[in-house]
């Protein structure tokens, strides 16, 4: 059975997501409608095989699944207001925008009064992942709503995770992005230290990307089901005790050098105390 899919918001990520849907419409048996206030991305989506809708309301009246990738909470709420005025009870709305965790929860309650299902499904992987269908899509919502949206989501993403009830997808994305941007901030500390020592910053970046591709970067430690302290007979206890020992040693040397060079590295100073406990083992200096 052909699914009628709508996509609202053809921005930097939304446009390649919509183009991906349009390019896969025959294989996935989709009828793809798109809407944006800008004419150029609409025309591009039409050339790819999508149909431009006259309005959000016109789209909502005929769609089975309607995806939103708009700018912020206010726009999500505005678009939902247009949808709920006309939507039938077969509709599932997918909120791809990264918003406050409270927004999809509140909208799901309002939508349910009209029989409309809502899932929050923010994405990770950027424009490149959107273009080639390799996004990670992180979904929160009831099982029925997830199953209704799943065929569409799997057309746009190679990793689709049903994280839990409504709001869980957004929480998943916020946790992932917290690590992302804290890591960026740590990278700026490392760059200041390297710059003060007279090193080539681009070469440092090349090394970081090279070794992260081998080791997995920060994700390499994320295999546990809990953040609680590890018992001494747990497999990861020995692994993370070694990581802590090595980390504290290298952080100690880096902090010492930073002080000599007059470079502030507050994240490194936090990390040397919090690394071991964060991994579930005693700090090396206390073990």
Annotation keywords:
single chain; 287 residues; alpha/beta; Rossmann fold; N-(1-d-carboxylethyl)-l-norvaline Dehydrogenase, domain 2; 2 domains; six-stranded parallel beta sheet; three-stranded mixed beta sheet; 12 helices; 9 strands; 55% helix
Structure summarized in a few sentences:
This protein is of the alpha/beta class.
Share of residues in helices: 40-55%
Q: Between the first and last Cα atoms, what is the distance in angstroms?
A: 62 Å
The CATH architecture of the largest domain can be given as: 3-Layer(aba) Sandwich
Q: H/E element string?
A: EHHEHEHEHEHEEHEHEHHHH
The whole-number mean of residue pLDDT values reads 96
Helical segment tally? 12
* Shape call: elongated
CATH fold-level assignment of the largest domain: Rossmann fold
State the total count of DSSP E strands. 9
Uncertain stretches of 5 or more adjacent residues: none
Structural class: alpha/beta
Integer tally of domains = 2
Question: What profile does the largest beta sheet have?
Answer: 6 strands, parallel
Quick one: CATH class of the largest domain? Alpha Beta
Strand arrangement, major sheet: 3-2-1-4-5-6
What is the fourth-level CATH superfamily of the largest domain?
A: NAD(P)-binding Rossmann-like Domain
- Strand percentage: 5-15%
Radius of gyration: 23 Å
């Amino acid at each position: 059975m052909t699914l009628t899919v709508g996509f609202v918001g053809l921005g930097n990520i939304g446009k390649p997501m919509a183009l991906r849907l349009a390019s896969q419409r025959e294989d996935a048996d989709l009828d793809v409608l798109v809407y944006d206030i800008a004419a150029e991305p609409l025309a591009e989506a039409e050339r790819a095989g999508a149909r431009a809708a006259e309005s959000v309301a016109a789209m909502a009246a005929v769609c089975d699944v309607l995806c939103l990738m708009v700018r912020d909470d206010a726009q999500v709420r505005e678009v939902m207001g247009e949808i709920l005025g006309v939507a039938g009870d077969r509709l599932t709305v997918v909120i791809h925008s990264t918003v406050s965790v409270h927004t999809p929860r509140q909208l799901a309650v309002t939508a349910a009064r009209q029989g409309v299902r809502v899932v929050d499904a923010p994405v990770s992987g950027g424009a490149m992942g959107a273009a080639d269908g390799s996004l990670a899509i992180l979904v929160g919502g009831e099982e029925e709503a997830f199953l209704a949206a799943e065929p569409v989501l799997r057309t746009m993403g190679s990793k689709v995770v049903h994280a839990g009830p409504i709001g869980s997808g957004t929480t998943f994305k916020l946790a992932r992005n917290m690590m992302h941007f804290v890591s960026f901030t740590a990278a700026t500390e490392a760059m200041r230290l390297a710059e003060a020592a007279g090193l080539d910053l681009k070469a440092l970046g090349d090394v970081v990307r090279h070794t992260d591709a081998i080791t997995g970067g920060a994700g390499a430690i994320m295999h546990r089901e809990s953040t609680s302290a590890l018992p001494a007979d747990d497999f990861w206890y020995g692994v993370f005790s070694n990581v802590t020992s090595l980390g504290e040693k290298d952080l100690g040397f880096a902090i010492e050098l930073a002080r000599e060079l007059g470079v502030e590295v507050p994240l490194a100073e936090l990390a040397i105390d919090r690394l071991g406990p964060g991994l579930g083992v005693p700090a090396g200096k206390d073990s």
